[in-house]
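Illustration 12: Pimeloyl-ACP methyl ester carboxylesterase.
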Amino acid sequence: MIEPADEFSFLPEQAAEAHLSGPVPHGERVAVTLPDGRTLSALRFGSADEPDAPPAVTLLHGAGLNAHTWDTTILALGLPALAIDLPGHGDSSWRDDAAYVARVLAPDVAVGLEAWTDGPQIVVGQSLGGLTAAALAASRPDLVRRLVVVDITPGVDPNAGPTQVRDFFAGPTDWASRAELVDRALRFGLGGGSRRKAERGVYFNSRIRPDGRVEWKHHFAQLANATAAAAAAGQAPPQPDDALARVLGESGWEDLARVTAPVTLIRGANGYVTDEDADEFARRMPGGSVESMTGGHNLQEDSPTGLARRIAGLAAEVD
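Figure caption equivalent — predicted structure in token form:
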């Protein structure tokens, strides 16, 4: 793998792959210190014609991902945007209690919005980010103009599609090179469909330790590995219950029920949200809307330009 000059060096390449013309917006890394001393990190992008414009859209990624998963979507969106590394992911600090559940993460996201935005946002959250966005909208309605949930509902079966990701991260916790991580992603059918895209994803989602070994940036890999090791040894897992199952419980429906902003669920035709899940969402959220797009669970990577068009359309509806 060729190491780029910086984390934004891939943007022109990503724009070309998506057949996007025009100037690439300026991106910058920002960080804020949370009340307990942890760091919350994010990527802030202006629009091409207003480089310093405050964000209008805030995007929250899924478990095991990071803010760069939204790069191409942001390039296609054409609006000033903020993409946050959720706690335990990317350049944000890990939590000592490993409590990566929506209601715990939402207050940290609120601190970020207060620091980096100057008005209520269209908040787009995929997977864990979607449930966190719902908890944020429920607890801090002043920060959310519209909620867009991407391919997740609280009712998704944690023993169905999500197990692929959990199994992928349950391997070794460190590696000799990033190339080994790319090979593993491709063996699991992950990585975006090409080795080049997998290399970008691994670069954004890993770091080189002082001893030269490579490790995932996100805490989920450590937790998944510990759980798998305990199961193999016939021992109780280090965490009292499955973190994935915890974020898909009834509390998620309670959060959604409290949201006063307009709500849209966008599901991938080949994603985790089944027809039954979508029907349950519609039943519980009669004022919301449900849409389907071609793609899988990570729509922001499978169909970034299509997702961007839909987000832009929803943004125009709010205006």
